[in-house]
Amino acid sequence: MRVVVADDQPVVRHGFAAILDAAPDIAVVGSAADGRELLAAVAAHAPDVAVVDVRMPVLDGIAATARITRDHPATRVLVLTTFDLDEYVYDALQAGASGFLLKDVPAARLVEGVRAVADGSMLLGPNVTRRLVQDVATRTPDRTPVDGLDALTPREHEVLLAVARGLSNAEVAAELWVTEQTVKTHVAAVLRKLGRRDRVQLVIAAYESGLVG
Asked: Which CATH code is given to the segment(s) 133-208?
């Protein structure tokens, strides 16, 4: 798994890179001190995951994330933030980020997070998901139609609602009495039918369409 790390603080950048590089299945192929360097590193190395600080000089993490998801859709973005109530988290997710972690995250959790994002999972806890949904409500008070909802099967609809509540694949499987692999298959189908990038985008779509809230 190829990873690029971007943070304007050298100690944080090098520390995260060292932690990730020590994992047997991860190779840090580039690093960046600002958004412009990040875009150059992604273009040069085509990483599977970019670990991106929200606040960076020259080009901030949100703008850089939007550019990455537009120009390099195969690269998923994991956003770093100082506080879990960071006002920029929602904007980063809207820009295409696949999730976020706090900067004081334990080493093992950072590695797990990068693996999860690379696998297409949503890296948001239930509490964060609820705050994200509430933020969507204040920013987009008028619900908007979401293409593809009518194409979902009843089971896929159930899975979408469960994902929108912030449940993991294991939690959805336990709630619906199916296997995790079955849940993964349903999630993949929902993503395809709604034309969404990842689980974060499914949460946003579910709320904006009025399915939850």
From this structure: 3.40.50.2300
